[in-house]
Write a structure and sequence with these properties.
Elements: E1 2-8, E2 12-19, E3 24-25, E4 30-33, H1 40-53, E5 60-64, E6 68-69, E7 73-74, H2 89-96, E8 102-106, H3 107-118, E9 127-133, E10 137-143, E11 146-148, E12 157-158, E13 161-162, H4 163-167, H5 169-174, H6 179-197, E14 201-205, H7 212-215, E15 225-228, H8 235-246
Parallel strand pairs: 1-5, 5-8, 9-14, 14-15
Antiparallel strand pairs: 1-2, 2-3, 2-4, 6-7, 9-10, 10-11, 12-13
Helix pairs in contact: 1-2, 3-8
Bound molecules: beta-D-glucopyranose.
């Protein structure tokens, strides 16, 4: 079975049809630049361009970088245009796509779902937490493979700050931190999350997971196993399609 997956990120809107049995894209993905400001209307135009590129007419799953309830309702928009809050995103995208069935899910939840089936979390039981370290910090919490959606652990307070402001990949770039210095912050953040949930496994995702050897070796004192995500760029697309199928 195939469903179309789309990942709405800060720089690009990427999508492709996904083979749900293999967790793979069936064609090379297509990307358009995310418009700025990334308002609901302008993003919906970008989504339509990507879907039209494939002439797709079936169900569509999309990621969104904020809290999404019921596959539709946007509750928060930490790093995107605030006009998203309280948008009925399913209605917005479905209208723009000529009535195609649409499901919208949190971006980290989508990445987590894909990693649990086809990547670093495959066959892992117990408590598993995927963290995406990117512009913000996204989280996906699994208990025996079942997702607890919208955990938003990136907004835990860390030394008086929103954790993602200090430990995201963007924070490393903006503050021009060395890998070691940044790893120290990530370590403190992981220790905090570990204190709350005692996971068996942390999966570290986001673009920076490709460079995990630069920072994971500097992280010490965490009891859980820590591994990089495996699906990298396509986790969001695959996971969005999987969530759409689950609906
Ligand atoms: C948002 C999350 C999102 C994460 C990664 C955070 O700022 O609140 O919903 O998953 O960024 O994009």
């Amino acid at each position: 079975m195939q469903i179309f997956g789309l990942d709405i990120g800060g720089s690009g809107i990427k999508g492709a049809p996904v083979d749900l049995d293999k967790g793979e894209l069936t064609q090379e993905r297509h990307k358009v630049l995310t418009p700025h400001p990334a308002t609901p209307d302008s993003v919906a135009d970008g989504v339509k361009q990507v879907v039209d590129h494939f002439g797709w007419t079936g169900p569509v799953g999309l990621t969104f970088p904020g809290v999404v309830t019921g596959g539709s309702h946007i509750r928060t928009a930490a790093n995107v245009d605030k006009s998203w809050i309280d948008t009925d995103a399913r209605a917005l995208f479905s209208d723009r796509l000529g009535g195609l069935p649409v499901t919208v899910v949190n971006d980290a939840d989508a990445a987590g779902v894909a990693e649990m089936s086809f990547g670093a979390g495959k066959d892992r039981k117990g408590t598993v937490i995927l963290l995406t370290l990117g512009t913000g910090i996204g989280s996906a919490l699994f208990v025996d493979g079942v997702l607890v959606p919208n955990t938003e652990l990136g907004h835990l307070e860390l030394h008086g700050h929103d954790a993602e402001k200090k430990a995201s990949s963007k924070a490393r770039e903006v503050e021009e931190l060395t890998w070691e210095h940044w790893a120290h912050r990530v370590q403190k953040y992981l220790a905090h999350v570990e204190m709350l949930f005692s996971p068996e496994l942390f999966i570290v995702g986001g673009g920076v997971s490709r460079k995990s050897q630069k920072f994971l070796p500097h992280i010490e004192g965490i009891k859980a196993e820590i591994v990089p995500a495996q699906l990298q760029n396509n986790a969001g697309i695959v996971g969005a399609a999987m969530r759409a199928a689950q609906e």
